[in-house]
Design goal:
The complex is a heterodimer of chains A (376) and B (380). By secondary structure, chain A is α+β, with helices and mostly antiparallel strands. Chain A is 53% helix and 17% strand. Chain A has eleven helices and ten strands. Chain B has 380 residues and is of the alpha+beta class. In chain B, helix 6 packs antiparallel against helix 7. The longest helix of chain B has 37 residues. In chain B, 59% of the residues are buried. The chains are: A alpha+beta (376), B alpha+beta (380).
């Protein structure tokens, strides 16, 4: 048992925290206000090796490992949650290609993902297949030396700018078999639809995708035929550690604004931090965020060792996102009216963090995963 | 970041789990029913080294670390929360302050028998008028040559009826408020010491709780822990460790609630299926399980920090606050999952509920933990 970070992890923490505070946080309000995709942030992440943290240097990655990745993502999300989710999905896409892809797929996509030529995207969700991810209906029909994809995807993060999108599609209807494909941006028949207008993470690009007679070569299949759902679920185990980390980052930012405010703000002749009403909120938030961090690190460290971590990742995601939401709510309340106006970042943190209990598996899906594991 | 247990930590987990399952669990309901002190279990636990786990072997202990202590506490409390607190008080509140603040002579005389489990310890801090406000001690100790003369009353003292040794807190200089508190090691057989009312409690009934009355008790100066005025520091430092014990106890109780509810929900059929197939039940189980793991990580972190002699007040308070509130939530849900069967004492769910409640109160209420945590946060 050792609760310390390694020197390398501490260095990454310090470096990314500095970057996030100096460059991302100051732009975050404007990015949110204008619902603008911060391409310049993505480029900076590439320069610092933060887009390919889960695969080796031979493919352009930094192979920093799941714990370092969790730390880096937390720090980025603390400055700008929208930049954080773009980073998360790019890393996740790269990791899936590294784990399940052929050498030629790896060489083709991994170096450009880590170099920031464009983000990666992961297209699983459909209008009729949300939590019930296996119920998707996009179909890839085998045709000569390729597949022809028809269907549509929704709520796809990074969809507009992605240099490569992992698309899950049925390759057989009965019995149902899902396969994964790597689809490039300019493929004929592949079209990016409208951008969603969201409550938060407004700088993150969220779009629908449509596939109409979209022809891809057989070599674009990721993994084996029928392996798609397994690839998706296994990728999401890692993704959930990422979203837990994102939530912790957002919540820590809100919490630190609230703590500072509680020290400075005076009412009834006292700093409001002297009132138990305020102190209780801070104590609960700090305790829960520490617990969330430990759960996320535990899941990441299991993953780092190549051990099963599905239940632990779900616990981390469930707990961190819900505790993070509570912490952001409490922080806003500590700031009172100032929490509600956009001059302070806390209302944005609250809007941003809400999505973490929804994407990459809702809290309800996490509870299903956990309770199934308990039942044995 | 390494979350694996060491060989030694795994070993004590196995030993404690096995002992708890075989020896403690079958007795827990009866101990509760009869409010009976589990003397035979304490003897067996002494043989296993559980009464002084983190005390070095040269002082009669098992020479293990605080993480081992937390692990063993959880396992014993999983079976019987009362047995858990008897063990916790002896380890954390009686052995630990002597180990940290006692002279060599005091260690030889009092720590060795207590750590080996030949004697039992208690911790006399709380008074009728000094609960959360522990600094407002009324018990006095007045210097008289090589002795102090002690007068006053302590109440809610766990283990007092069976204890041989008491870590006693007194006021030696009232003008200095909490800086005028002095701690002593006291032999419970000394003249002038008597037991007051034996409390009847909601839960942890097999653990005995009573007041202790001190009338003109002569305590040798050599039995002082630290200097005059160090008492508050001794108490707070001791409680930082004690809170790790209570957090572990709370996790054990929470696990009992979860494991019992889980097995009931697999057997119990309603509407033609086991109730664990309903999301209403699954949600409760998933939340309890997640919160237990969060609580355990907070607790082991605090224990690990204590082992490295790092300052761990905030982390111990977080562990205790969170774990005890998890225990209570788990117990409420555990009873609910059992429905009517949760409310009758044929099933253990209602005992877990009664036992869990105390963990939010003793060794610093949840409110005191929040004070400690927020004070650290706002220090900035």
């Amino acid at each position: 048992m050792d609760f310390r970070l390694t020197d390398e992890q501490l260095q990454i923490e310090e470096m990314v925290r500095g970057l996030s505070r100096k460059e991302f946080a100051p732009r975050a309000a404007q990015v949110d206000e204008e619902s603008r995709y911060p391409a310049e942030n993505h480029r900076r992440l590439a320069e610092l090796g933060l887009l390919g943290m889960l695969y080796p240097a031979s493919f352009g990655g930094s192979e920093a490992g799941p714990v370092s990745y969790s730390i880096a993502l937390r720090e980025v999300a603390g400055g700008c949650a929208a930049t954080g989710v773009g980073m998360a999905v790019t890393n996740m896409t790269g990791e899936a290609i590294f784990r399940f892809g052929s050498d030629s797929q790896r060489s083709r996509y991994l170096p450009i993902l880590s170099a920031g030529k464009g983000p990666g995207a992961f297209a699983l969700t459909e209008p009729g297949a949300g939590s019930d991810a296996g119920g998707l209906s996009t179909f890839a029909r085998e045709d000569g030396d390729g597949y022809v994809i028809d269907g549509s995807k929704v709520f796809i993060t990074n969809g507009t700018n992605a240099c490569v999108t992992i698309v899950m599609a049925l390759t057989r209807r009965s019995p149902r078999k899902i396969s994964a494909f790597l689809v490039e941006a300019d493929t004929p028949g592949f079209r990016v639809g409208k951008g969603e207008r969201k409550m938060g993470i407004k700088g993150s690009d969220t779009v629908s995708l449509s596939f109409e007679g979209c022809r891809v070569p057989k070599s674009s299949m990721l993994g084996a035929p029928g392996e798609g759902l397994r690839i998706a679920l296994s990728t999401l185990d890692g993704g959930r550690i990422g979203i837990a980390s994102q939530a912790i980052g957002i919540a820590r930012s809100a919490f630190s604004t609230a703590t500072e405010y509680a020290r400075d703000r005076r009412q009834f002749g006292h700093a409001i931090g002297e009132f138990q009403a305020i102190r209780w909120k801070l104590a609960d938030a700090a305790t829960e965020l520490d617990a969330a961090q430990l759960l996320a690190f535990r899941a990441a460290s299991l993953k780092e060792k190549g051990l099963p971590h599905s239940k632990e990742a779900s616990m981390a995601k469930l707990f961190a996102t819900e505790a993070g939401n509570r912490a952001c709510h409490a922080a806003l309340q500590v700031l009172g009216g100032y929490g509600y106006i956009r001059e302070y970042p806390v209302e944005r943190h609250l809007r941003d963090i809400q999505v973490t209990t929804i994407y990459e598996g809702t809290s309800e899906i996490q509870r299903l995963v956990i309770s199934r594991a308990l039942r044995g | 970041m390494v979350f694996d247990l060491t060989e030694e930590q795994r070993m004590i987990q196995d030993t404690a789990r096995e002992f708890a399952r075989k020896e403690v669990l079958p007795k827990a309901a009866e101990l509760d029913e009869n409010s009976r002190f589990p003397e035979e279990l304490i003897r067996q636990m002494a043989e296993l080294g559980f009464m002084g786990i983190a005390v070095p072997q040269e002082y009669g202990g098992a020479g293990m670390d605080t993480v081992c202590y937390a692990i063993a506490m959880e396992e014993i409390s999983r079976a019987c929360a009362s047995t858990g607190v008897i063990m916790s008080v002896n380890n954390s509140l009686a052995c630990d302050p002597i180990l940290t603040f006692g002279s060599e002579e005091v260690k030889r005389e009092y720590l060795v028998p207590m750590a080996t489990g030949k004697t039992l310890g208690c911790f006399g801090l709380t008074e009728p008028g000094a609960g959360s406000d522990a600094g407002s001690q009324k018990t006095t100790a007045v210097r008289d040559g090589d002795f102090y003369v002690v007068n006053g009353t302590k109440n809610f003292i766990t283990n007092a009826p069976q204890a041989d040794t008491c870590i006693l807190f007194t006021m030696t200089d009232k003008a200095k408020a909490h800086k005028g508190i002095t701690a002593f090691v006291v032999d419970m057989k000394w003249k002038g010491i008597s037991l007051g009312k034996h409390e009847k409690k909601m839960g942890i009934r097999a653990s005995a709780t009573s007041s202790i009355i001190f009338e003109e008790v002569r305590v040798p100066s050599k039995n002082r822990l630290g200097n005059e005025g160090d008492g508050f520091k001794v108490a707070m430092n001791t409680l930082d460790g004690g809170r790790i014990g209570i957090a572990s106890q709370a996790i054990g109780i929470a696990r009992a609630s979860l494991e019992d509810a889980l097995s009931y929900s697999k057997d119990r059929k309603q509407f033609g299926q086991p109730i664990c197939d309903f999301q209403a039940i699954q949600w409760m189980l998933a939340d309890i399980a997640t919160e237990i793991e969060a609580a355990r990580l907070l607790t082991w972190r605090a224990a690990w920090m204590k082992d490295r002699k790092m300052r761990h007040s905030k982390e111990s308070s977080m562990a205790k606050l969170y774990a005890s509130e998890v225990a209570m939530r788990a117990a409420v849900k555990g009873v609910q999952i059992h429905g009517g069967y949760g409310y009758i004492n044929e099933y253990p769910a209602e005992r877990h509920f009664r036992d869990a409640k105390i963990t939010e109160i003793y060794e610093g209420t949840s409110e005191i933990q929040r004070l400690v945590i927020s004070a650290e946060l706002l220090k900035g």
